[in-house]
Each structure stands twice: as structure tokens, then as C-alpha cells.
Design goal:
The complex is a heterodimer of chains A (353) and B (134). Chain A is an alpha+beta fold and 353 residues long. Chain A has 3 domains: 34 residues, no CATH class; 168 residues, Immunoglobulin-like (Sandwich), CATH 2.60.40.420; 90 residues, Sandwich (Immunoglobulin-like). In chain A, a hairpin with a 4-residue loop joins strand 1 and strand 2. In chain A, helix 8 packs across helix 10. Chain B is mainly α and 134 residues long. Chain B is built from 5 helices and no strands. In chain B, helix 1 runs parallel beside helix 5. Chain B is elongated, with a radius of gyration of 20 Å. Chain B starts with 7 loop residues before the first helix and ends in a 5-residue tail after the last helix. Classes of the chains: A alpha+beta (353), B mainly alpha (134). Chains A and B meet through helix 5 of A and helix 5 of B. Bound molecules: copper (II) ion. The site of copper (II) ion has 7 residues of chain A, from loops.
């Protein structure tokens, strides 16, 4: 997925780091392949999108489950192959009938039944906690093609605080996350925080997450949902509760009026180009609901659902090369805008913090 | 078989018995299948229509499970007697004689009962651990 993201960036001038391609040239084919595979597998063990680097209560429990299964599988593999080695190499004489029957009943019937029952019980005993009720904050996330519509409902709220393409959660609390989808099945997954949950059109599913370590993680749509599925990701931020509350209050506020002349020009271009038909900027005439709410787009940590960064250049790239950066998105590419207009627009959007 | 001359109707009776026990070996897996379908259907219907009745559902699944295990246990016991491995000491019944066939069907039915009992238990375990619909 990262790889496809990198590809999508190249045509618009972002340099790829000298990683995979260059190493390929140094090492001969097949060996390079396995070395790369090994390296990338090792690299997958840490980082902000890894089940093996848990940062939440649910991911920790799932990580333990994984380790138990892994160690168990290794022990079983060694025992079976050790036994095989023993009877074929070390002691190839015929076994007594009694012993052979014992092996079949004990190793083939009793052991698997008991081990499977144990694992099933263990797995099932974990499940209720993974879906435990939250402590008050509820999020509603709807899967779109290919982005995320997000609403925050603090306890007792009667109207949501609308955002998009980013999930923020307070550390040390359990938040409810209600999921559904607009048209096709997606799957919501923040590996560092917990398990994944499918999102269906017309059917609400539920997940709850309890982040433990503050930090920036990454979520990814985990169910193929069309052309740009691989570019349907998001930043997930776990914050200390006070910081989260402050952030949420800021998200609730309408957009700040542009403070600079360039920003004001950008706002006019935004209105003139009809961006408001698809996007909402609260506090302005832009009320569109087709695309992500842009009221605080400047405070987000990525653009286009984890597709681009957030520099002014990234904003310009997004606006002018939308469908190149992210194939088949429902937003037209504004490549007819002249560079000055594009820069103004980028300034306006980036200042919407 | 050579020294034993069966009466013609004895052979027919034996054949009929075999046919019945051929049916009987499917009964334990069938019990498992019925238990499975009822548990899944009941859980789906209760959780969609009356999620508050989940407690009753769990008790019901528990009772059904005991019933199924009882039935499978009884079928297994009958199959065990038919297999008759204790007196013959013959695990495998390799010969194609009527007696061997008879015992082999018992043998197969015992194994199927064991796997069916396990299946029933595993199907019921979620009802033991999971206390709510969602
Ligand atoms: Cu998706």
C-alpha cells in the first residue's frame, strides 16, 4: 500500500527515497527479493501501523493472542517434525501397536481437541472486552469512496462535530465508534489500537477503542472498495484528554476568516470555482456534502485520506492533479487554474486550522 | 464363514440390521448439524428482534446442548457396543465378513460420535462466553 502511494506521488514531482529500487540494482535478482522481503517483514514489526507495536488496550490483548498462537504453532511444529525425525532417522524400528494406538488417540484426538477448546475459550473470552461500552465519547464514521466522513458526539451532545479523514481519541478512555458506509463495504482498522471492523451500507456496526499511549498512528481501509482503496487511509492520533478536549473545541468552531490578503483571494477563488457545491466550510456559504468537511482542513495531518502530506505544495498538487494523485476520486482536477490562483487557494485552505 | 451355514432368512435379517446401522452412523453428525442450525438461527433471530432476551437464548442453547450431547452419547454408546472392541480386541476389522462389517460400522459410528460431540461443544462455547448481542 505504501508502495502504491509512492507511485501515485511520483508523477507530480515528489522524489522517491533511494530505497527499494536502488537496492534492487545492487543485489542480483532472487537474493535481493528475499532480502527485501525479510527487511520489509522486519520493518513491519514496529512503526505506527503495526499490530506488533500495540498502543491501545485492545491491540495489546490481540498482540498477546498472536504471540500465544505463534509460540504454540512453533512448539507444535517442532514436536511434530521432531517426532517425525525420531521415527524415521533415530529409531526407525516398528513401534509397538499399543504405543502407535496411544499416539493416534492421544496426539490425534485428545491433544487437538483440548488445545482447540482452550484456544477457542481464550479467543472467545477476549471478545466481549473488545466491544465493551465506551466511557462517553462516541464517533460515527462513514466509509466513502475513498475517504472517511467523521462525526464526534461528546457525551450528551445533540449535534455532532463534523470532521473527516482523521480520527482523534483521548488516551485512557474507551470511545465508542459506530460505523457504516455510503455505497460499498469498507473496513475500519487502526492496527496499533485494535482490531478491524467492516463497514456496510445500511447497517451499523460497532467497535470500541481504548488508546493507552499518546501518539500518531495510521489507519487503513482493510476491505477492497474500488480503484483507490489502497489510498483510503487516515491519521489516527491518541491525545492526552485535556489536549483532546481543546482540539475538539477548536474543531467545533466555525472556520476562521482568512487573515492575509492572499488567504482572502483564496477564499474568493474557492467561492468562484464552486468548491462549496461539494465541500462545507462552516461559517461561510460553502455547504456541500459530497466531499470532506474542510472547515479545519488546515489542522489535519494528511490530505486526501492519507494520500499526501500537508505542505502548500501538497495542497496545490491535490487541487490541480486530483485524479492523478488519487485515481477516480469524485473531485475534478482544477488544472485550468493558473498557478497564482492555485497558490492563493492553497494558502486559504492551509490556514483553515 | 466357510463352516457356518447361515439360514437364508438369517442372512436377510443381518443385511437389514446392517442397513439400519448404516443409517445410524449418520445420526450423531445429523444431531450436530441440527444443533448448529438451531443455535445460529435462534441467535440471529433473537439478536435482530429481541436482543434483551439474550439471557433466555443462552439458557436455551445450554439446554439444547445438553440434550444433543446426551443423544450423541447414547448413540456413541450403542456404537461402542456394536464395535465390540473389548471382547474381540480387533481395532481395525480388516476382513470383508459380515461380522467385520458389522463391527466396522460400529467403529466408524463411535468416531463420528466423538467428533460430533466436540462439534456441538465448540458451537455452544460462544453462548457461554458472550453475554450480549453487540
Ligand atoms: Cu474503503
Amino acid at each position: 500500500m505504501e508502495r502504491r502511494a509512492a507511485h501515485a506521488r511520483t508523477p507530480v514531482g515528489r522524489s522517491m527515497e533511494p530505497t527499494e529500487r536502488d537496492r534492487d540494482r545492487v543485489l542480483p535478482g532472487a537474493r535481493a527479493g528475499s532480502v527485501l522481503l525479510g527487511l520489509s517483514m522486519l520493518a513491519a514489526c514496529e512503526g505506527r501501523q503495526s499490530v506488533l507495536a500495540p498502543a491501545g488496550a485492545d491491540a495489546r490483548v490481540l498482540g498477546d493472542l498472536f504471540m500465544v498462537m505463534l509460540v504454540g504453532a512453533v512448539v507444535l511444529w517442532l514436536s511434530v517434525n521432531g517426532l517425525f525425525f525420531y521415527v524415521t532417522r533415530i529409531n526407525p524400528a516398528a513401534l509397538s501397536k499399543r504405543f502407535a494406538n496411544g499416539l493416534i488417540v492421544g496426539g490425534g484426538l485428545l491433544l487437538p481437541s483440548v488445545v482447540l477448546a482452550g484456544l477457542l475459550g481464550y479467543g472467545l473470552s477476549i471478545m466481549p472486552d473488545q466491544r465493551a461500552p465506551g466511557d462517553g465519547l462516541t464517533l460515527r464514521v462513514r466509509g466513502e469512496q475513498w475517504w472517511w466522513r467523521v462525526e464526534y458526539w461528546p457525551e450528551g451532545a445533540d449535534a455532532p462535530i463534523v470532521s473527516a479523514n482523521e480520527i482523534r481519541l483521548p488516551v485512557g478512555q474507551r470511545a465508542d465508534i459506530l460505523l457504516d458506509s455510503a455505497r460499498v463495504i469498507h473496513s475500519f482498522w487502526i492496527p496499533a489500537l485494535g482490531g478491524k471492523m467492516d463497514m456496510f451500507p445500511g447497517r451499523e456496526t460497532r467497535l470500541s477503542l481504548h488508546p493507552e499511549k499518546p501518539g500518531r498512528y495510521r489507519g487503513q481501509c482493510a476491505e477492497f472498495c474500488g480503484t483507490s482503496h489502497a489510498l483510503m487511509a487516515f491519521e489516527a492520533v491518541a491525545m492526552p484528554p485535556e489536549a483532546f478536549d481543546a482540539w475538539l473545541r477548536q474543531q467545533e468552531a466555525p472556520a476562521a476568516a482568512p487573515a492575509t490578503a492572499q488567504g482572502q483571494r483564496g477564499a474568493r477563488i474557492f467561492a468562484r470555482e464552486g468548491c462549496g457545491a461539494c465541500h462545507t466550510v462552516r461559517g461561510t456559504k460553502a455547504r456541500g456534502l459530497v466531499g470532506p468537511d474542510l472547515t479545519h482542513v488546515g489542522s489535519r495531518l494528511s490530505l486526501g485520506a492519507g494520500t499526501l502530506g500537508t505542505t502548500l505544495a501538497d495542497y496545490e498538487t491535490w487541487i490541480a492533479h486530483t485524479g492523478t494523485v488519487k485515481p477516480e476520486v469524485e473531485m475534478p482536477a482544477y488544472d485550468h487554474l493558473d498557478p497564482a490562483d492555485r497558490a492563493d487557494l492553497a494558502h486559504y485552505l492551509k490556514a483553515l486550522e | 464363514m466357510a463352516e457356518h451355514q447361515p439360514a437364508p432368512d438369517e442372512e436377510r435379517r443381518e443385511f437389514r440390521e446392517e442397513r439400519e446401522s448404516l443409517w445410524r452412523i449418520t445420526l450423531a453428525p445429523a444431531t450436530w448439524a441440527v444443533h448448529f442450525v438451531i443455535c445460529y438461527a435462534a441467535a440471529a433471530v433473537v439478536c435482530a428482534k429481541a436482543p434483551d432476551s439474550i439471557g433466555t437464548l443462552r439458557l436455551g442453547i445450554g439446554a439444547l446442548t445438553l440434550l444433543a450431547l446426551g443423544l450423541i452419547g447414547w448413540l456413541g454408546w450403542r456404537a461402542w457396543v456394536q464395535w465390540d472392541v473389548r471382547t474381540t480386541g480387533d481395532y481395525r476389522n480388516p476382513l470383508g465378513e459380515a461380522e467385520d462389517r458389522h463391527q466396522f460400522l460400529g467403529h466408524a459410528a463411535v468416531l463420528l460420535s466423538v467428533i460430533s460431540a466436540l462439534g456441538v461443544l465448540y458451537v455452544a462455547l460462544p453462548a457461554l462466553f458472550i453475554r450480549s448481542c453487540g
